[in-house]
Fold:
Amino acid sequence: MENLSFVKLYIQNKMTYSVFIFLLILTSCSKKTGVGISQPITPPRIMNFTAEDAKAAMNSFDANFYSNTDKLYYSSTQKNKLAAIWVQAIYWDMIMNTYKRSNAPVDLQRVEDLYQGGYLKYDKYNWENKVEWFIYDDMMWWIISLARAYEITGQQKYLNASKAGFARVWRDSYDVVNGGMFWDFARTGKMACINFPTVIGATTLYNITKDSGYLEKAKEIYAWTNNTLFDKKSGLVADHKVGDNPTYWKAHTYNQATCIGAGVMLYKATKDQKYLNDAILAADYTQEFMSSSTGVLTFEMGIEQGIYNAILAQYIIRLIEDGNQPKYESWIRHNIDLGWENRDKARGITYKEYNVPCPIGIVESYDASGIPAFMQVISPVK
Structure:
């Protein structure tokens, strides 16, 4: 199998697993193009966003993408199908961050609502169901979010589901011989998108339970991933390693993000400076090489890839606050102000290309998520 063919397939890794296998055999795939019609580009008028803006951004995101019936999010403004299973966990993080910002009972209820939506849609979080759950990283995103929900609410059901899910993934994804976590049920490759999130999930559960077994697992997987998928000179996070093939050094924002998060969390848990140094290096790479010359975060055209900056939001704030690295805040604020100024004023939604106006046609929820996600974690000016 050619490594490049696998990479092309992996870019579309959230398709159903049967389609993945079919395409793997064919060793070819195509990228999805953007949707919507772009408005004429006008120079943005930069403004510092406010608390009201942060509230409006999330309210508009919900109005355009949330299904009150399913208690989950749609994939686009068409509202004709739900977003992918793993992305729902990221949207749940956004809701939880909204509640942490607002402390409003209505937002706390929304935390419970989305849990219930997932409970009904995904077989009551039955981790042994290999139809609903078909890739390990899809499971781990939810495992992390369930643990966070417990941290916020103290409700035991969230923790029980998170612990059960982690045990299931560890049992079947962990390579007991060579280390690291496999991405898919067929155990064909080890991706950053399962390995760094496993560190985050394990460390979060350690923080809650104080069970040292979780911390040891986090440190072990971090060591494997750091040695295999991390360039210690530049801060670049590789996408994956497949078998004996060379590590594939393709950068994605969400992999940089979870590397940052894993490093900061282990630093906070162990006080070992090396973890924080890695997180800083990964953030520096993201700012320097994955942003434009004017500091605007880049984006990817592909299935569900618009969600990547929402994941960056979740972890860059941990570096800013827990890692005491405020130097990144102005960079993120710059992106927020650009994206928010270029929102679709009629619908109130933003787009993944922050320095141009949001398309006036169909917009995917993935592509609209980054700016409202950033706005829930970065403090407004007033």
Q: What stands out?
A: The beta strands are 66-67, 72-73, 190-191, 240-241. Residues 39-82+304-382 form one domain.
